[in-house]
Design a protein that fits this description.
The chain has 10 helices and 12 strands. The chain is an alpha/beta fold. The chain has 2 domains: 258 residues, Spore Coat Polysaccharide Biosynthesis Protein SpsA, Chain A (Alpha-Beta Complex), CATH 3.90.550; 34 residues, no CATH class. Helix 3 runs antiparallel to helix 5.
Length: 305
């Protein structure tokens, strides 16, 4: 089996090397092919990388000045997946950005999940992050209807679908990051695996989506508590919990065929021109005030279980 992990990096040398050094301490690190996609990397940084691990392949990228941060990150991550799947012929690939610290069992956790679910036609990816922190559930995980972010892996069985999304995104030149673009497409059909305790932690910095001050937010504080940050610990059997609590975001719903149907129905009602016109007609017939009351109170019911 060929397993790969790649890091996308740009202009954050200290943060990047924190991540790389932490990754090297992960259990089963030597079982993986390693790749770094480093935008505008210098020879000095490449030499430092080689000192940590001479087997890491480093690919330098450079873009025209008129390219946006969105385009650069999307193209860099797409290049990483293409190289890992099409050149390395990987069975599954893990992707982390340069500010994501992995836990000691980060690679083992992703290995377990992909070996277990790669043949499941409804499985898309495994994520690493969480804000839950009960110690007796350290090795629990569950299936959810959501997207991907902050240290995620995908099997070769989903590469065709992932490549199609990347091609559409990169050719569209939309000002949107890959995770936001992919999420509605993933949620129409697939489940993703989420851990109860976090296997990743984002180093506070002034990045593309966050500010250094965010480290004092409740989400960040709980994320840090959830992160398994010890250099080494005994890895137990990973256990699936069908009723696992997961509170990162309200729209992260438990996976079931019914919930997939509800998600698609909600997506249709938001995007459909016919539905929008029908909604306007109903509003005209019953009156604006009654329509708003129905929307506010009746549609507040959570159909997800």
């Amino acid at each position: 089996m060929i397993k790969s992990i790649f890091i996308v990096a740009y202009n954050r040398e200290k943060i990047f090397f924190n991540t790389l050094k932490k990754l090297k301490k992960c259990k089963n690190y030597d079982q993986f092919k390693k790749l770094v996609i480093y935008q505008d990397v210098t020879k000095t940084i490449i030499e430092k990388i080689r000192k940590i691990d001479p087997k890491i392949e480093v690919v330098k990228t450079k873009y025209p000045k008129n390219f946006t941060s969105f385009q650069k990150l999307n193209l860099n991550s797409y290049l990483g997946f293409r190289r890992c799947f099409d050149v390395y012929k990987s069975n599954y690939v893990i992707f982390i950005e340069d500010d994501i610290l992995p836990s000691y069992d980060f690679l083992e956790y992703h290995n377990h999940s992909n070996l277990l679910y790669h043949n499941n036609k409804n499985y898309f990816a495994t994520n690493s992050f969480s804000r839950e922190n009960k110690k007796n559930l350290d090795f629990s995980y569950s299936k959810f209807i959501w997207g991907i972010a902050k240290g995620w892996s995908v099997p070769k069985e989903r590469w065709k679908f992932l490549k199609k999304m990347y091609q559409e995104l990169c050719s569209s030149k939309e000002e949107i990051y890959y995770d936001c673009y992919f999420e509605p497409h993933i949620k129409k059909k697939y489940f993703v695996v989420m851990p109860y305790r976090s296997r990743s932690y984002e180093q506070p910095s002034n990045g593309l989506n966050v500010r250094f001050e965010d480290k004092d937010s409740n989400l960040w504080i709980n994320w840090k508590k959830s992160f398994l940050n010890k250099n080494k610990y005994k890895i137990k059997n990973y256990t699936f919990l069908s009723d696992m609590t997961y509170s990162w975001r309200e729209d992260c719903h438990k996976y079931s065929t019914f919930n997939i149907f509800i998600n698609n129905l909600k997506f249709f009602t938001v995007k459909s021109y016919i539905f929008i016109q029908f909604k306007n007609l109903i509003k005209y017939i019953i009156g604006y005030k009654i329509f708003i009351w129905i929307k506010k109170y009746l549609f507040k019911i959570n159909l997800y279980s």
